[in-house]
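WP5 quarterly update. Target: Fructose-1,6-bisphosphatase. Source organism: Boletus edulis BED1. Length: 336 aa.
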Amino acid sequence: TTEELPSTDIITLTRHVLLDQLRLGTAATGDLTLLLTAIQVTSKFIATNVRRARLINLVGLAGETNVQGEEQKKLDVLANDIMVNALRASGKTAVLVSEELEDAIIIEERNKGRYCVVFDPLDGSSNIDAGVNIGTIFGIYAVRPGSSGTPEDVLRPGSEMVAAGYTMYGSSANLVLSTGSGVNGYTLDAALGEFILTHPDIKIPPRGKIYSFNEGNSMYFYPPVNAYLHSIKHPKTGSPYSARYIGSMVADVHRTLLYGGIFGYPDDKKNKSGKLRMLYEAFPMAFLTEQAGGLATTGTKRILDLVPKNIHERCPVFLGSRDDVRDVMKFYEADA
Ligand code: AHM
Ligand code: MG
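Structure tokens (predicted):
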């Protein structure tokens, strides 16, 4: 029967992004498509190596030496290197910022393009040894008009990003992307080596039933956060929320986008600015969340309106379903 035949009208990420750009009239150069192609290649490379990690012993510490006497690279170092190399070689970038590198990389003249890419090459890497989902997070800015590409090109509000996304390495590799007109999810078809559109136009439910916080830190949390958590665990009506916390931002946000609810990593008495990095963790995830119809706040301010003063700055994060995020904001308002 026809049901058993594979679809012959598959939509690949490249096809989808190209069509999007044509539709929006932003296809003038196709540069963004080429840049996203480079990012896809790095995600395929990282996905393959995450899968092989146990077999080829990439799990150890960077700097260790294997039996052949070669230096072994820890997975996050490997992920960083492939991204820097592929993005530089794409010829489409001017500035690169990685969680793994203290300073921004300014691309040399002969490879220079007009985009800046900020990324966490392998987020949640403390989870690798347990085989838990990890991911790559990225955000893309265009260089400012007239700029030749300096770190200031990325010290701008997240709302000015032209695209953001992540790839989650789990039972399959899932790339979730927004170029500013909604959010789409693609799954890597390993046989084809292509990301195929599997989750078109992701929309977060307006309210969820799940909260995702590291509640082990509650003795450090400020009153509005604890009061909010109490309110969803001891509701006046209805049933309490379920707790789900993987401790891998990409996986926790992915679930939040699909099922709804709230993910939070607040600032607290110990971590004055929270833990997550504004530029390459909070901004891309806030961008995706808003594009999917949700909200992302520090508790008192819209995350995408923040302006980083340095590339590795941190900020508090609450994101997810519109009504759930509004609830936590109300506790902050009441506390002010
Ligand atoms: P990392 O960049 O060192 O991997 O840390 C970021 C990760 C996020 O993926 C996750 O949301 C958070 O740290 C979990 O932190 P904690 O272990 O404090 O709950
Ligand atoms: Mg990280």
